[in-house]
Request: fold
Amino acid sequence: MKSSFRDTRLIQDTREAGELLARGMLVAFPTETVYGLGGAIDQPGAVEGIFAAKGRPADNPLIVHLVERSVLEKVVLAIPPMAQELMDQFWPGPLTLVFKKQAWVSSLVTAGLDSVAVRSPANPIAREILLECKCPVAAPSANRSGRPSATTWQSVLEDLNGKVDAIFQGESCAVGIESTVVDCTGSQPELLRAGAVTLEQLRSIRPDTVVLKRTHAAVNSPGLRHKHYQPQAKVILVNDLSRIEPKKDAGMICMTPHASAAGFGLYVQVSEMERYASQLYEFFREADRKQLAEIYCEGVPTSGLGAALMDRLSRAAES
Reply:
């Protein structure tokens, strides 16, 4: 069933959301990472609709979301022992694993690759919706391609109103940055994209986990080949906040207090790395709402969650 997208519906019923997905509709829903734009992978029109709504390049693969092991076995050719170990520890949660795909999984989902990226979200609303849909759901971030990901349903509405069938009105996303992606198609786990499941955590389970350099990263991970996470304001990474003069047309997000916080058009100080990550994209979006010219983002150490945070900040600051 096709929609004209003239009226995007705001919904709060997980059964309704699942039924819409099963009928080939596009539904944005919350996960613990960011809001996802869902389309059932057995509905080619829905998968095509995801790319159209986001303005997403066709060579950027999608992440498939599911809940049950029996569904995973229908999507992937095999579950290697390394993947099983990581699933046992981190699923459900913000970890995406890359497997060899079953032949029936559309090349639209995988960008023509023979592998498919899969995760099992922990957010209870997402899980209920997926169970109601009864089909694996492709769900990239629910935003226009290249823009900061949406962590609230209001931000989804800003980007996709009139372009999707429904938006689930859930709470803000707890993690706030996209999932960790690990390739399990080779001889050892390969970290393709940093996220809330850290390299240190991965290596506590699989000490042989390696990190692919970004310039050589395989295309079977979403979010690596194109510009991402960028607000309209210019993003400037800084380490010494004392050298930054406050301006009303500038914003700042930081962990270290700035002596002249009131002088910025937007100022957000967080006390811990997790809060920095969870608030980053909404800070970007609020800066754009205020039409700020530039925003200063304090750099953080690249250990633990800092690796993912600095990845997103560096990508946002690219010219």
Remarks:
- Confidence is low (pLDDT under 50) at residues 1-5.
- The first strand starts at residue 9 and ends at 11.
- Residues 273-289 form the longest helix (17 residues).
- The two ends are 41 Å apart (CA to CA).
